[in-house]
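Example (one chain per record):
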Amino acid sequence: MKFDYKKDIHPKYLLLVLSVICIGLFVLSAFTDILRPVKRYTAKVILPMQEGIDKIAGWVDDKLEERKENDKLMAENELLKKQLEDKEEALLRNQTELSELSGLRSLYQLDQLYPDYEKTAARVIMTDPSGWYNEFYIDKGLNDGVYADCNVMAGNGLLGIVTEAYDDYSKVRAIIDDHSFITAEIGEAGTVCTVEGSLRNIDDGYLIAVDINVAAGVQAGDKVVTSRVSDRYHYGLTIGYIESITPDSNNLTATAKISPSAEFRDITEVLVILDRKQEVTY
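Predicted structure:
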């Protein structure tokens, strides 16, 4: 069917449509002008916020990266710390083993100086809290052939004597103890004297020998050993060396300072002579 707009659309309707379109364009144009300040204001607010959000996002990313790197460094640090602890433990074990080896070597050398006696090595398991080893316990007892009055040695000479023995451990009194008295001999002449224990004197590094015959000619450097007439100590065990000697007021006897051969601190191993003086005939 043929369409004839001149007959089907009245001019007034066409004018109305065109008017509506013009009004719509005008309104749209006006609305756009109205929104332009809003857009400018919005841009002023939104853009800084966007920039701030971008900065925050960047900061968060940096912090997350730093945290990740920090965690990595902490893990590496823990690994290095563990490796260091392992090496320190290994070093400590080596030092302990070397110390024990050195102690055993000293005991062996000491053992060779007195080959006539049966001996056993023992470890110190408890000491007096004072710091001086004037009384202490060892890990050998009756089950190991250790009895009261067994002589105990360490370092380069006499350390003390067993005072109490139990099945698996024993108590030792060192010659520096205040209750220790030893009949001893000085030098080649065998001048008899009494060596007295004294914690006060050992603080200054020496023992005291009393009742020395002035006429015996004892001098500094003379060796002091246990006497043949001692009732509990074997003969010839080294006690120490004369450091100095001073005549007593009676001019008949003298008193001497002795530098002991044994060390009375930090003792770890000792040598116990299993033969007791009462059982040995010289």
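Caption: The helical segments are 5-8, 11-113, 199-202.
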